[in-house]
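User: I'm designing a mutation panel for histidine kinase and want to avoid disrupting the core. Could you give me a predicted structure to guide residue selection? Please restate the sequence first so the numbering is unambiguous.

Assistant: Good idea. Sequence first, for numbering, then the predicted structure tokens:
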Amino acid sequence: MSLTTDTHSGLVMDTEVKVDKAEPAPGLDPSEETQLKEALYRQMLSAVSHDLKTPLATIIGSLEVYTLLEAKLSEEKRRSLINSALSEAYRLDKFITNILDMAKLESRAVQPREETANLTPLIRDSITRLGPLKDKGEIRLHDLGGAEAFHTDTVLLSRVVGLIIENALKHTGKAPVVDIDYGASGDEAFVHVRDHGPGIPPDKMRAIFNKYTRLQKQDQQNAGTGLGLSIAELIMTLLGGRIEVRNHPETGAVFSLYVPVHLAPPGGDR
């Protein structure tokens, strides 16, 4: 990963699209509502089964080959098998973490805890926590100022920032660059994360925030769980903020996070 920081002007963005949760159509009779719930349940079960079985199959296959043929394998091949199993284990761990996070958020078991935040170290920490994924491309930080000391839940905000950067790295296309503008304006701190991929079809901009919804990807290895953006939206609501998405006029998508700024008093936490 190449990580750079500068203080140039912000990203140029196209017309804004706010994301609202999709609600069932009004006027459904009980039988139609039941059918809708059953369809959503089948969709969820299919997605969960796929996301559990796919990495497990790779882990088992890699370790079986390693166990049966270890003496005949070159050092490079042995290392490749171990790395493949380890990569899928990380993927499985992330999926389980997302399921648990979603359950906690939906049950309202998570409550914000305010502390002093500074966006620069918070974003850098979020990037570090991405592990090997952060090396997929260049991440450029653009500090626009004003967000050096304010109050929010840094753990929750860092989680959202990490999810959005992860999403950008997976969709950045042939130009593996992610631009992050951040700062504060008025009574809000903001983080704009832009990838350089194909962007998002206008008719999918709302759907991507629904659970287990994924855009079609050629790179199945990097496909997400379909939970990350749902978790991000829930957390931003919990923080009293919001998440918005738009396509950049040139290329790629831009996800914007806005969180209320409660200015921190001199001397640190309250």
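For picking mutation sites, this is relevant: Residues 30-106 form a domain with the Helix Hairpins fold (CATH 1.10.287.130). The first helix runs from residue 30 to 69.
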